């Protein structure tokens, strides 16, 4: 059900995306009317959260049913959980996933005391988070801890931090109780940590996972979990995760290979690598080796023999995951994007540089998985077509599990090739009702995502 406006995009970006979803190949396949309907539905569903929360269970530490039971007990201790019956359902095809339905939209009366949060903070509230103090942009002059407040998201990022109120474009996301005085949030001159507003009546009711079973239950979008299974890591292998931060997929790969072998995680931002190391330690995964490094330079012909850290000799890895930097247009919920068309279109060259390095790093017979969380052809199907032309030794492989849809026409790929790709398109089933079984909704009501699996022959 639609309660928010369609995602706000710059006109040139909206036109570009419309061209993607109404390209000639697609129009020839489904017709103009249906393509237009899909595109308009996409713009609407992007501003809304998925209808469930996806939890990746650490089944290398405990059985799935034990984790489900502990999670049920923890969530029932939350105040919000006492109002509605909790349903925690195992995914039928992804063995380490638990699904929790989101209750909403719920209709709450707006209060006179208003807090304005940044857009990212507002998006997080729609997926179960409280409002953390750094995300608060405006609040009443005399707000005190304990005050009941309505929370709004600053859709276009135009609210001045420290304001008393804001009348620009904003969206109501629910009611809560202030945990801090205004003076504590804005009066210290330092960044204030902790919860600023505890959400009691969110528009979408989803359990907060703040401190809930951190070593056993990991919040992760379903397609991101599917990526790890599609890669198919096996015990004893050496695997490269080229763009690893914040490390969810890295740790999943290590768990899937029973922590036997080596997972090399690379990223260019040093403090993010420390986060990967901490997560791996918390999950008792000793096979993860994290390095701050530019993955486009991961291979060097000057290196002889095995090395613990980058760069590495050619053909050093059994499997490579390239979860590539992308325009991120598939993320949900997202009520507005201020990106220019130049920014949206800036990623394919970097993705191709990383792909070149990935192919060089991969052993013959090895598996390369390429994924993005965006919607464009240029970053998805067109990259597959380019890779097959550029690297004659690469072939597409079937994916398991294949719970998303096929690739989208528009890049000149033949139907057999499109059937081997996995594109998650939430617009195709966004209007499914609550009567639709949760597992059926979960496979389609996701973020926008893309996965391709190659073998190097």
Structure in words:
It is a single chain. The chain is α/β, with parallel strands linked by helices. It folds into three domains: 11-45, no CATH class; 114-202, Archaeosine Trna-guanine Transglycosylase, Chain: A, domain 4 (Roll); 221-456, Rossmann fold (3-Layer(aba) Sandwich), CATH 3.40.50.150. It is built from 14 helices and 18 strands. Strands 11, 12, 13, 14, 15, 16, 17 and 18 form an eight-stranded mixed beta sheet that branches. A six-stranded mixed beta sheet has the order 5-9-8-7-4-6, with helices on one face. A four-stranded antiparallel beta sheet has the order 2-3-1-10. Strand 11, helix 8 (248-256) and strand 12 form a beta-alpha-beta unit. Helix 2 packs across helix 3 and helix 7 packs across helix 8. The chain is globular and about 65 Å long. The protein starts with 10 loop residues before the first helix and ends with a strand. The model has no long low-confidence stretch (mean pLDDT 92).
Short description:
The chain has helices at 11-21, 24-30, 32-45, 64-77, 119-125, 182-186, 222-231, 248-256, 270-282, 341-344, 347-361, 381-390, 415-420, 438-442, and strands at 52-57, 89-90, 97-101, 114-117, 131-132, 136-138, 148-154, 170-178, 195-202, 217-219, 237-241, 261-267, 288-292, 317-323, 362-372, 394-396, 422-424, 449-456. It has 457 residues and is α/β, with parallel strands linked by helices. Strands 11, 12, 13, 14, 15, 16, 17 and 18 form an eight-stranded mixed β-sheet that branches. The protein has a six-stranded mixed β-sheet with strand order 5-9-8-7-4-6, with helices on one face.
């Amino acid at each position: 059900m639609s309660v928010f406006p369609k995602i706000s995009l710059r006109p040139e970006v909206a036109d570009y995306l419309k061209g993607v979803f109404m390209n000639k190949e697609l129009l020839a396949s489904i017709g103009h009317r249906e393509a237009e309907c899909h595109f308009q539905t996409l713009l609407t569903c992007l501003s809304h959260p998925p209808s469930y929360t996806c939890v990746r269970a650490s089944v290398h530490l405990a059985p799935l049913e034990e984790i489900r039971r502990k999670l049920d007990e923890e969530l029932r201790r939350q105040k919000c959980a006492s109002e509605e019956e909790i349903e925690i359902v195992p995914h039928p095809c992804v063995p380490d996933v638990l699904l929790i339905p989101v209750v909403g939209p719920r209709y709450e009366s707006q209060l006179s005391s208003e807090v304005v949060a940044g857009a990212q903070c507002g998006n997080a509230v729609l997926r179960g988070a409280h409002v953390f103090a750094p995300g608060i942009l405006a609040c009443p002059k005399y707000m005190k801890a304990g005050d009941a407040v309505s929370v709004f998201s600053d859709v276009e990022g135009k609210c001045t931090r420290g304001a008393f109120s804001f009348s620009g474009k904003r969206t109501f996301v629910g009611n809560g109780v202030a945990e801090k005085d205004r003076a504590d949030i804005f009066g210290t001159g330092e960044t204030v940590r902790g919860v600023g507003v505890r959400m009691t009546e969110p528009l979408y009711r989803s359990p907060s996972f703040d401190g809930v079973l951190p070593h056993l239950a990991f919040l992760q979008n379903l397609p991101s979990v599917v990526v790890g299974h599609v890669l198919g890591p096996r015990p004893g292998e050496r695997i490269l995760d080229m763009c690893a931060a914040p490390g969810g997929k890295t740790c999943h790969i290590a768990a899937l290979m029973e922590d036997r072998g080596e997972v090399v995680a690379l990223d260019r931002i040093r403090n993010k690598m420390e986060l990967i190391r901490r997560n791996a330690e918390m999950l008792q995964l000793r096979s993860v080796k994290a390095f701050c490094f530019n993955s486009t330079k991961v291979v060097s012909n000057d290196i002889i023999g095995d090395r613990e850290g980058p760069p590495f000799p050619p053909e050093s890895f059994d499997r490579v995951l390239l979860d590539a930097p992308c325009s991120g247009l598939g993320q949900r919920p997202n009520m507005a994007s201020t990106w220019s068309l130049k920014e949206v279109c800036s990623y394919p060259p970097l993705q191709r540089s990383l792909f070149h390095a990935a192919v060089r790093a991969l052993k013959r017979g090895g598996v390369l998985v390429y994924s993005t969380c965006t919607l464009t052809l240029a970053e998805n199907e067109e990259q597959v077509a380019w890779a097959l032309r550029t690297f004659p030794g690469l072939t597409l492989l079937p994916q398991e599990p294949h719970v998303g849809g096929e690739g989208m026409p528009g890049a000149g790929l033949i139907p057999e090739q499109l059937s081997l790709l996995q594109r998650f398109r939430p617009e195709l089933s966004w209007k499914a009702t609550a009567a639709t079984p949760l597992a059926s909704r979960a496979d389609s009501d996701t973020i926008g995502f893309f996965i391709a699996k190659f073998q190097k022959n």
